[in-house]
Queue: 2 jobs
Job 1
Amino acid sequence: MSTTESYPRPLKITIVGAGIGGLTAAAALRIEGHEIFETPSMNKEIGASITLADNALRVLNYLGFDIEHLKAGDYLGVAWFDSKGGEDWNLLVTKEEPVRAFEDFDAQFTALFALVDGPVHLWQIRSLLPLPTWINGRAALIGDAAHATFPTIGQGAAMSIEDGVTIACLLPLGTTREQIPGRLYTYQTLRKERGEFVVRESLEQVTIPSKRGLYSRSPEMQVFIVNHDAVRVARENLAVHVTI
């Protein structure tokens, strides 16, 4: 065996649309020793506020991000102001505008707009319906591409982070091209049900009155979501069920 054949060869992996999940995957795959080509969608981001619970922070710790180093300055407070410019996501419109948008609906539904008093807030937020599959050959969906969700329980970014590190842990150095489809099937097995659970609960806790605020009232749901260790779960599954 030659010297070059004595060492495992890295995979060459392309990440398209490197958002939170893609950046996590890139960082974790580099830890595994692979070569990464990424097409970022966040290269002009200057920062935004998101919620990261313990399940996401465990992954960041694994990647070497010390939260103590993230402090850019002394906290002074939060100020709300009217931002101008760009596309508005929360508009005030007259009630006639949504009436026109729903004019093809049955009268028993459009009659509800007569009950509206004053202007209407027009804004958009979307939740992705479950997809039949997240994988195809050596390609896989992660993050919002697989499970876009309402921000109701503050787990959208965390699910993307878990996706990214799960794929990386299932593709350790030494994985061959031929093994990738099987590893991605394992990724889907580990992630799809969990991601879709968060999507479903985030939607239902907005749209079903009896479920509003359920996450904050359910210790069992909090434990299921927040106590999850994506790195440990992926590695244990790889060791038990997958032949390297």
Job 2
Amino acid sequence: GQNGIRIQTQASRIVPTDATAVGFYCTNAWNRWIGNSASGGFSGFHFPAVPYVLGDSYSQNRDYHPDEKELLEFDSNTAHSSGRLWSRGACMYVGGELWEDNKGSQQYRYISGRATARKGGRFIMTNTKDLRQKDVQCWENEQPVLRVSSMLMTKFFCHY
């Protein structure tokens, strides 16, 4: 369902997101993804909300908030055969949340489904292609939608 799974760091799985392995796990939207191809897994490209810098990097970057950033560039990326591991799965997924209760502790908590709303800017994805039953999921206002105020797809091709 919409809530996904909730897991935390444990001895056998230091990074809880390993339970939802993806081709490109994008914790900081302020980057460029150009010409990549993802296949299989929980999702091809996953952009969870990350409210603060994680792990050892937190002490040097206390004022940086990844979930407040716009997607710098996402162009000519493809994904296929992804998102089939859960009922809300998609090749491109903007949702979920990863955080540390005690910042810098490397003791992570993760929600794969609907979580705290992103504080950040827009996600513009251009020339994007995917092959899957469900193509894109972006959770905003508690509903999965393709076009929302913070996300825009241009030249998007989806083949079922």
